[in-house]
Structures are given as C-alpha cells and as structure tokens.
Amino acid sequence: MDLSATPFFLRGSGYAEGTLFPWTMSDFSLMDAIECGIVKLPRVPVADNMPGGDVPKFRNLWEHIRTKMLKKGRGKTKNIDPLSIPTELQTAIEALYGHYKKKYDLWVEGGLDVPPCFIVVCNNTSTSKLIYDYISGFHRENEDGSTSLEHGRLPLFRNFDEYGTQRARPRNLMR
C-alpha cells in the first residue's frame, strides 16, 4: 500500500504533470481529510510582530525569506550555523511554538496521553536539517576539534536533556 500526500506526477518527472499515479485507487484531498478529522488542521503563524509593511510578513513568509534560504541539497552544504536562519523564520517558528505550548499545556491538564503534533515543512533537505538542529539541538564543532552542545530553541522538542544527554526517544524527528 502506498500512501502519498501527492499521488500525482510533478513537473519534470517525465510524465504529464498533475496526472495521478497509475496505481492510485483513491484520491482523498487534504481538505476532505481535515473536515473529517482524519488529519490535524495546519496552522500558519498569524501573530506577526515584525515591523514594517501593511500586510503581516507571516502571511507570505516565503516571499520574505526565500533569498536568504539555502538552495542546495543537504549533501552540498556543510558547516552552516542553524542559529543563522532568518529572523523572520525564527519569529514565525517561535510564534507557532507559543501557540503549540498553550495547546500542549491544555492537553497535559486534561490528562490526554497523546500530545498534539508539530510539523515544519521545508523547501529542501538543507533547510530541513537547519530547522531540525535549530529546534532539537545540535553539537557545534569547536576550533580545537571538540564539540559543545547547542540546546534546541524549542524546549518541548529538544532531543537532549538539560545535562546534554541525548534522549533515548527523540522528541523531534527529521524526515
């Protein structure tokens, strides 16, 4: 069984763009899945405290950061500091996390076992790795060859505890 968020051919695949995979038996749209409660409702940061402009930057975040983001795949970029992502992106992530934290606290208060999910979608694997490290924490290589831990910026998703020990069960996964 193949479950795909995009069960159709994309431009450049060698097949007619937008045609369903020949093995597709059913196509259930994201909107239908949201309305049926099968998937969680995607959220876009709306609490915009970035100065300048009449329209909130978060509304079209990509338009504001695209020239500042990595364009190459993960294997082609090295030694890029995860803490150097654009301020607008950091602020958007923090805004979404703030909303998530409030919901998470309500779930804990209510005694619910399975917490809400937090998903970040990136434009390529280089960006994905940077965001992953920014959120979960990473080891920075020092000039003398040793490493030091940079704690993740979103405490609920840190993959290292307060002593720097990697958690047996990670809180943050990269796909």
List keywords for this structure.
two-stranded antiparallel sheet, single chain, mainly alpha, 27% helix, 175 residues, 4 helices
What does the model show?
The chain is globular. The mean pLDDT is 83. The protein is mostly helical and 175 residues long. It has a two-stranded antiparallel sheet. It is built from four helices and two strands. It has helices at 30-36, 61-65, 87-109, 125-136, and strands spanning 137-141, 147-151.
SSE map:
Blueprint: H1 30-36, H2 61-65, H3 87-109, H4 125-136, E1 137-141, E2 147-151
Antiparallel strand pairs: 1-2
In short:
It contains four helices and two strands, in the order ααααββ. The protein is mainly alpha-helical and 175 residues long.
Low-confidence sequence ranges? none
Binned, the helix content reads 25-40%
Overall pLDDT metric: 83
Shape: globular
Helix-and-strand structural type:
mainly alpha
Order of helices and strands: HHHHEE
Radius of gyration: 19 Å
